[in-house]
Amino acid sequence: MKSQQSDQPVRSHQAPGRSVSSHRSTLLLSAVLLLLTALLLWPTLKSIWGSPPATAESSDPIPWRTDYAAALAESARSGKPVLLDFSATWCPPCQEMKHGVWPDPRVVDALNAGYIPVALDADAPGSREPASRYAVDTIPRVLIVDSKGKVLRDGSFMSADEMVDFLKSPPKAG
Predict the structure, then answer these.
(1) DSSP H/E element including 37
(2) Same domain, 88 and 159
(3) In terms of domains, do 39 and 72 share one?
(4) Across 27-159, where does the E strand assignment appear?
């Protein structure tokens, strides 16, 4: 049996009017954009998937408080200044500090020895009053305040070494 040949032209699997090199350029551009997006989101992705779940063994060595007013009252009783850490779960630099700065043993020792640490989620309703009081418009924001709420030191993103320096010899709370 003889095969029949068609007089119809052979069709390509590419879109009309687009060359193979155009498809390669689009694919390359998409790959580069995907890579750049992944690099920008790396601190957030690392904090979500790279940290172990909280257990008794991996619990936070810093006794973070979340009640600003109670921390000021504790400061008045103890004489220790209050460290306010304004952050958010969606903030990559905040997550980098959460997983790379706060757990540093030197930072833990300095905080536990001389401060009342308060973690304030910038998105939580309970953080609105202190965020407004201190005009927090960017995060992370780290403040050291006395028992009356007067700012003694003001900082933002820091490495562990910078945080240790920031925590050294602050004025005593009154």
Answers:
(1) helix 20-49
(2) yes
(3) no
(4) 82-87, 116-121, 141-145, 151-155
Residue 140: is the preceding peptide bond cis (ω within 30°)? yes
Does residue 132 carry a pLDDT above 50? yes
Report the range out of 5-19, 37-51, 62-76 with the highest average pLDDT. 62-76
Q: Is residue 173 part of a domain?
A: no
**Neighbouring-strand partners of residue 83:** 117, 144
Q: Return the pLDDT at 25.
A: 79
Query: CB–CB of 73/107 below 8 Å?
Result: no
Q: Domain of 35?
A: 18-50
Residue 63 belongs to a domain? no
| DSSP β-ladder status, 116-121 and 82-87 | parallel
Alpha carbon distance 11, 31 (integer Å): 28
CATH number for the domain harbouring residue 101: 3.40.30.10
pLDDT tens-place string over residues 22-48: 778 787 888 777 767 766 665 555 544
Task: Identify whether residues 146 and 76 lie together within a single domain.
Answer: yes
pLDDT digits (tens, 9 = 90+) for 102-117: 999 999 999 999 999 9
Residue 59 and residue 52 in contact, taking contact as beta carbons nearer than 8 Å: no
- The pLDDT of residue 111 is 95
* Same domain flag for 73 and 130: yes
